[in-house]
């Protein structure tokens, strides 16, 4: 699991997690590009293939906008409304709400994910 956050000033946070909330690696290098217009900004992050563990099968994406009492949270696959508890805070680690994902859908059925030395070698350091 990976956690990535960056803002219009280029600040970002990239974590590799082992399970739920267990930070395994942090402050990883990241190539990104940010452009800001009059009313919005756009950010693109370029994640090296070795940051992805083998056989990624589920995915979710999150965004946080604003600050203090104007802060809002978005999720590609949010917790369903009927499952929210009163006073519940946003939680980006709810793996049960991630949805099936395949890189092959984006890159073609013949595409094979490159092996990652990071996950093959260091998986024993968990």
Automatic annotation (TrEMBL):
PANTHER family on file: UPF0462 PROTEIN, UPF0462 PROTEIN C4ORF33
Family (UniProt): Belongs to the UPF0462 family.
Official protein name in the record: UPF0462 protein C4orf33 homolog
Gene responsible for this protein: CUNH4orf33
């Amino acid at each position: 699991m990976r956690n990535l956050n960056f803002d219009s000033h280029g600040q970002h946070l990239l974590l590799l997690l082992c399970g739920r909330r267990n930070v395994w690696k942090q402050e990883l290098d990241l190539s990104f590009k940010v452009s800001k217009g009059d009313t919005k900004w756009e950010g693109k992050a370029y994640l090296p293939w070795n940051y992805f563990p083998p056989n990624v099968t589920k995915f979710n994406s999150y965004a946080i906008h604003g600050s203090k009492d104007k802060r809002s949270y978005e999720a590609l696959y949010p917790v369903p409304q009927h499952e929210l508890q009163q006073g519940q805070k946003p939680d980006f680690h709810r793996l049960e709400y991630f949805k099936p994902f395949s890189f092959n859908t984006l890159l073609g059925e013949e595409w094979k994910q490159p092996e990652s030395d990071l996950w093959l070698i260091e998986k024993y350091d968990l």
